[in-house]
Amino acid sequence: MSLAIKTDSHRTEELKSNGVRLFWLSALLNVNTFGVFSTIFYLNGGMTLQQVFYTAVVWAVVGLLSETPSSYMADRWGRKRTIVLGVLLMAGSTMALMISRSLWPVMASFVLAALGYSCISGTDEALVYDTKLELGEKGQSLTSLARLASAKYVPKILVPLVAALVAKDLTDSQAMILLVIDLVTSVAAAVMAMGLVEPRHQYEVVEQEAGIMRKAWGTLKDNGLMRRAVFGRAVIMSAALVLWRYHAELMVGIGVAPLVLGVSWAAFHVLLVAYYRTENETRGRWSLEKRIDFGNAAFLIIGLAFIASWYWLFQPYLLMVLFLAHQFSDVARWPKYSEYFNRHAASFSRATTLSMANAMKSVLDIPFMIIAAQLSGNPIWPWWLVVMAACVVVFTCRLSGGGKSEVAVTA
Under 8 Å CB-to-CB from 152, ≥6 apart: which residues? Predict the structure, then answer.
């Protein structure tokens, strides 16, 4: 009897450590120092900018194809084992880059990374949710999931600066140092993953994701404002990704020092965290819909300002500031859209709508990256693609003054 009590007590303590282990696992996997200047290293390795864009297409396609099989594996093989496999695959993607930064090793790296991400994405949230249910702490699951989501931002404050200091000359040997750092953090993440405790399964990821897709389709089919919100969010996210994909090569190419770019990204994330913390204090001045529309318009206006500055001023550091402001205007919209989905979706469809929004973004990444690859012969042409996409959102996906959502709001 006492042994059983001791065993149950020990399991409870181990289950409580799942949240901390997952937090640091996510933070370690998002260190990715190589990613700060990855495009430059790919080009130095013999790839063309067009091929760099195609790697993002590979990521999107593999991610979409592997999402359901990885969820099935999480249900049948176990959450912990699937997460461990995902971490090992991501470590393998780093090792592929250590072999060479030429086309085929890079493609192999993206395939492995996309498979690893699919294994972890969703499975980690399922493990958190099941852990809280087994501990009898279902009411705390939302807080734990929010804490897990915040883990990926922790390293982004210092990583750009560290990467800029290590790779100040952008040489091949410096690229290897960054990859070694990333491999070490991946190994540390694998140690964290192996320490996880498998909770009793309370729901099936596969069944939930199938329900998500059915419910999301019904929500979007019946609700015009939701369609606008999901489409507007996804289009600008995909457009911003196009510019981020080659920004390091563009900025360094026009004369921005790598160290300055790294410091600027560090400052960017400090400001972003501060902005997120003060978001609630400014929400009463405008309606949520107007703030979303303003964010989309800001993305368009700053994009036009960048293009105008490119043609008429061409001051490298001004262009860098405009680029960072442009990226900021995108990520600043994310919590507003999340609040909109939560406010206007019925209780069960809240998660479904956000999942469909993420799926739509992955689908849109493919044509955006293919078109950007064709436009990559001139560094400013992808900006025209992004501005045209922003115009579509600003003029067709306006939420303010568009009537009320047709989905009932429930607690």
Answer: 26, 27, 30
Per-chain mean pLDDT for the chain = 83
- Cα separations (Å) of 18 from 22, 125, 144, 179, 194? 6, 11, 10, 28, 11
If one counts every other C-beta atom within 10 angstroms of the C-beta of residue 285, the result is 8
Residue 328 identity (one-letter amino acid): F
pTM of the model as a whole: 0.82
| Residue 360 pLDDT | 79
- Domain limits, CATH 1.20.1250.20, in the chain: 1-203, 204-411
CA distance 172 to 45: 8
Q: Which of 356, 67, 122 is nearest to 219 (CA)?
A: 356
**Quick check: 307 pLDDT over 90?**
yes
pLDDT band at 356, cuts 50/70/90?
A: low
Q: Note the residue count of the chain.
A: 411
Quick one: which of 124, 92, 114, 115 has its CA closest to 105?
A: 92
Distance CA 74, CA 203 (A): 11
Tell me if the domain spanning 204-411 has CATH number 1.20.1250.20. Answer: yes
According to CATH, the superfamily of the domain at 1-203 is MFS general substrate transporter like domains (1.20.1250.20)
Q: Which position has the token pair 């993002």?
A: 56
Residue 402 has pLDDT above 60, yes or no: no
Residue 393 token pair: 């959102």
DSSP 198: P
Token reading at 257: 């020092």
- Contact predicate 200/130, CB 8 Å: yes
